[in-house]
Amino acid sequence: AQKVTQAQTEISVVEKEDVTLDCVYETRDTTYYLFWYKQPPSGELVFLIRRNSFDEQNEISGRYSWNFQKSTSSFNFTITASQVVDSAVYFCALSELIQGAQKLVFGQGTRLTINP
Amino acid sequence: DGGITQSPKYLFRKEGQNVTLSCEQNLNHDAMYWYRQDPGQGLRLIYYSQIVNDFQKGDIAEGYSVSREKKESFPLTVTSAQKNPTAFYLCATRRGGVTDTQYFGPGTRLTVL
Fold it and tell me: Label partner for B47 (CA 20 to 30 A): which of A6, A15, B79, B91?
């Protein structure tokens, strides 16, 4: 069965520190997709990134970067020079295709608090 | 503006009552989903629909029902059979193709009194 583990339940850092959120997944599929979503206090999930299992290149978007390592089944997310606005719950998710339908399996989320 | 709307934002229900949560989209996406989120938990799939007039049960469908009569709409009914309905409910649509991704609405927080 597909599974996503975010072992860090809560992280608290001071503004401008770098912080890494861990995500470990389990799947038997050879082709799959991994996602990160941000959930601010308002509740809506905001899409951050989608990564194909065949593409192991790291990705950087501004202060955000993602490290995908297939060998360790990990897809970690780093925020550089964190800001108070980064405070949110972050979810890692793994997709599976069942009869053409995309189903997402979510981790339990990591609550990130950035203190001024 | 294109997007996903969910109404109401907050909903209170008495035990034993059915209640329907609305989800509307104007993104022209074929697939729609309903998820449930409990405090400190990840999202769990309730129902999903790939096309109009077709839907499938997710992992926790018991006590819920849906319909998909129009492409734009995917309402979720929480029935009295749902034992613990108090939760945050999120609707999503899927944009297929090269950028195959699910996008989420603002959510409805349901509280059973």
Answer: A6
